[in-house]
Amino acid sequence: FDERGRLWVAELIVYPNEGVAREPQPLSRIRVLEDRDRDGTFESATIFAEKLRVPNSVLPYRGGAIVCDAPEIVYFEDRDADGKSDRRTVLYSGFDL
């Protein structure tokens, strides 16, 4: 959850199939679920980042999210505050799959 109470979810589309990291076109994504009226049910689900390989962790951080998407750790930033990532910065690379 982030400071606004939104739930960030890593959707692994092809997992646990073999060859996840070698998929020709990565299909996984990060979604942000929001309960706008605070009744315990999410009213919106926004795709924040897509075309990911194997996003196995997501940490909301400074208007974006740090995602472990092996073989990289990436910071996805929402610079224009539209709820979707518009900048991708690799923080670390080198996990061997």
Automatic annotation (TrEMBL):
What sequence ranges are listed for the domain DUF7133?
1-96
What InterPro entries does the record point to? DUF7133
Highest taxon listed in the record's lineage:
Archaea
Instruction: Return the protein name.
Output: CAZy families CBM16 protein
Species for this entry = uncultured Haloferax sp
